[in-house]
Amino acid sequence: MTLFLGLGIAGIALLVLSLIFDGILEGLFGGALGGFFDGLLSLPVIAGFLSMLGFGGAIVLGTTGLGTVAAIVAGGLAGIVAALLTWKFSRVLMRDQTDATPRGDDLVGTSGSVVTAIPADGYGEVLLRLGGQTVKFAAKSSTPVERGTEIWVEAALSTTSVVVRPVER
Question: pTM for the full model?
């Protein structure tokens, strides 16, 4: 019983260490066996296996009269299930990534409207949609553009200014 409880506690301690030293085993076995160790033998997965082996074995040994072999088998099966669930859950979390940050070049080819008139070869202001948000940019045009005119972005001069032309319909 003490050995099983020790394994369970060791698994919990390993899980705490995995929070501090995340990615060490993946770094040691990086690329071995065609990526077999990518996540499958990570510290959280091993900690899950070890904890369930220990605590599952202790529960079977303490609550039934089946003996040590049955406790090892039951704890081992519970450990395998816990390890697989931990591996699958960590893979799902690792895939949960956000979209790329929008950049000024993403504005080229979009349309918007003029909020402050643009003089010929001077600067005015336009409203454009960037990353789902309406953003005001300084705008330059080769021809004068009146307020409220629909414009087309031809180039991004900087992170806050663009070159535009009126939309012709």
Answer: 0.53
